[in-house]
Amino acid sequence: MAKNKVVVKADKIKNWHKLGRILKLSLLLLLLLLLIVYIVLRIKFHEGSFVVNLKSNESLESGLAIYESLNDRTGKRILKAENLQFMDNITYAWLPENIDTEGEGSHNGDNYIAYTFYIENQGDLVFNYWYSITIDDVIQRVDEAARIIVYLNGEKTIYAKGNIIDREPEPGTTKFRDDEDGTIILEERRYLNPGDIDRMTVVVYLEGNDPECINDLLGGELRMHMDITEEHITT
């Protein structure tokens, strides 16, 4: 009898060890799956967090061009700003005074994205063009505290979402649009003559003085793009 009891106890210990190995393997597989999901999400929401698109090949053919540097004025279809892996809230006064003119392409700083590029009429006709910014993905309502500054040839406009109480504009800002497709900014630049070059700088940051800049926004992410759309002028 005693011998049988020892055998039963040994079998139980063996089964527990086997179960323990299965649990450890399951946990490792779960952690691996979570890591893969995390990496995919990081790629999805951080890769190309700000992109500028020239809307059609016809624009390139007619002479409308976008590029990052005056030293290389070859027209591109797509421009991509460098991303920030982390952005803490700051305030407008902390931005460099020369942020519009300090660099070309990406010139990000601590806790803000800054991207400068050019729009040139390399053709023979006069154009109007529209520029729009559309939000593609937003997590944790981080857009409630976001500020987007657009400098066009030195002229500055600060855009923000309306306040959460009555959706009126935040002080000193132009309110985001509320289009169904996610477009928050839509502006027209009229009469770009042959040879004209527009300099545009886009700055994105989180305004710490915004009442909606609260702890609930921690972990939030924002991805957006700008479209440049040509409009011919019939004369």
Describe the structure.
- This protein folds into two domains: 1-46; 48-232, no CATH class.
- The strands form two sheets. Strands 2, 4, 5, 7, 8, 9 and 11 form a seven-stranded mixed sheet that branches. A five-stranded mixed sheet has the order 3-1-12-6-10.
- The model is unreliable at 38-48 (pLDDT under 50).
- The chain starts with a helix and ends with a strand.
- The protein contains two helices and twelve strands; from the N terminus they run αβαβββββββββββ.
- With 235 residues, it is an alpha+beta fold.
Outline:
22% of the residues lie in helices and 35% in strands. The chain has 235 residues and is an alpha+beta fold.
Helix-strand blueprint:
Layout: H1 2-46, E1 50-54, H2 57-62, E2 64-67, E3 78-80, E4 105-106, E5 113-121, E6 127-139, E7 146-152, E8 155-160, E9 174-175, E10 183-192, E11 197-206, E12 221-232
Parallel strand pairs: 1-12, 8-9
Antiparallel strand pairs: 1-3, 2-5, 4-5, 5-11, 6-10, 6-12, 7-8, 7-11
Throw out a few tags for this protein.
single chain, about 240 residues, alpha+beta, 2 domains, seven-stranded mixed sheet, 12 strands, about 20% helix
Quaternary: single chain
**What is the radius of gyration?**
26 Å
| Structural domain count | 2
Query: What count of helical segments does DSSP give?
Result: 2
Helix share bin: 10-25%
Strand content: 35-45%
SSE order: HEHEEEEEEEEEEE
Distance N to C terminus: 108 Å
Low-confidence stretches: 38-48
Shape: globular
Overall mean confidence score, pLDDT: 82
Largest beta sheet, briefly? Answer: 7 strands, mixed
Total beta strands: 12
Give the structural class. Answer: alpha+beta
